[in-house]
Amino acid sequence: MENLQPSGSFKSRGIGHYLLTQLSTLSPSSNPHIFSSSGGNAGLASVHASRALSLPCTVVVPFSTSALMVSKIRTAGAHAVIQHGATWADADAYLREIVMPTQHRLSGEVGIYTPPFDHVDIWTGNATVVSEIVNQLQGVRPSIIICSVGGGGLFNGVMQGLDTLGWGHTTTVLALETAGAASLSASLAAGHLITLPGITSRATSLGATRVTAKTLEYAQRENVKSVVLEDHEAAEGCVMLADEERVMVELACGVNVGLLLKGRIERVLGRTVDKEERLVVVVCGGSGVTVEMLAGWREEVTEVGALPNGNGHEA
Ligand SMILES: *Cc1c(COP(=O)(O)O)cnc(C)c1O
């Protein structure tokens, strides 16, 4: 239930660990300033971590970032939120080439650049989700772990955590993407890293056009399966979580729950799932969700004959 993290998503794990590692290399007299380029949950996680460390954090987001997320990042206590460029790549370049050098020149602060997913320290932080799962299962190996993939930082953490326990080739890992954001699925089909020309899914937190090299490598293992669902199937997952668990999450997270509905997971696995089986869904969370968005998804899934008013679905 990563939606319960102070920043609203699992990103606190990776970014928290990354920042502590970066800070440990600095001299005590230096004046650090955190910089993050992300429109969404990574920016929010950076600000929450920086506040916990009493450090300033500047976030650069592209114009595609919603007003809701900009306002949440501001309210969380960002030093500054700057909107620049059409895409994350534009915002990121502006952050590294203009914002960070300018801030350093003006204030003498040491800038710490925080990437959203492509760093081994981020994966190590995300891997803590696996040790917690195993504690909760009292050491029993889960047979299936379900998690979604944007750039692959969460998935890499799950695989790294499983490897540490010697389960990296036995536990089945289902790597979920939505159609229109399926950069891992495309890379697997091609046999090499593919950069998508654009993102057409509404699950924007999965909207990395290219996964990390390590993500493709892990996903080529036999026990890993890439699964792509439609946005409306992710919406079903969000509606189901709200109805059954009183929990609000983004489409990027609902996709994992959508897989459990309407016999989809059985079709993906080619077998039934046993009642006694340990199946773990990483509810990755996300702050880009409102009651109004959920109401829209409810209408959408009812129209396509998905969940009749939230009742009667098979789970
Ligand atoms: C960032 C994010 C993802 C994808 O994580 P990656 O590490 O980029 O693969 C999934 N769900 C939510 C809610 C996110 O914020």
Model description:
The structure is a single chain. A four-stranded parallel sheet has the order 3-2-1-4, with helices on both faces. The chain has a four-stranded parallel sheet with strand order 7-6-5-8, sandwiched between helices. With 315 residues, it is an alpha/beta fold. The chain contains 13 helices and eight strands. The chain folds into two domains: 10-116, Rossmann fold (3-Layer(aba) Sandwich), CATH 3.40.50.1100; 121-308, Rossmann fold (3-Layer(aba) Sandwich). The relative contact order is 0.13. The protein is globular, with a radius of gyration of 19 Å. The chain has helices at 11-24, 41-52, 67-75, 88-107, 120-126, 128-136, 153-164, 183-190, 213-219, 231-245, 251-258, 264-269, 291-303, and strands at 32-37, 57-61, 80-83, 110-114, 144-148, 172-178, 224-229, 279-281. Pyridoxal-5'-phosphate binds next to helix 7 and helix 11. It comes from Lepidopterella palustris CBS 459.81. Pathway: Carbohydrate biosynthesis; gluconeogenesis. Its main location: cytoplasm.
Q: Overall 3D geometry? A: globular
Largest sheet: 4 strands, parallel
Tally of individual domains: 2
**Largest beta sheet: what is the strand line-up?**
3-2-1-4
Mean pLDDT: 94
GO cellular component, one term: cytoplasm
Keywords: Cytoplasm, Gluconeogenesis, Lyase, Pyridoxal phosphate
Domain Tryptophan synthase beta chain-like PALP: 1-285
Main location: cytoplasm
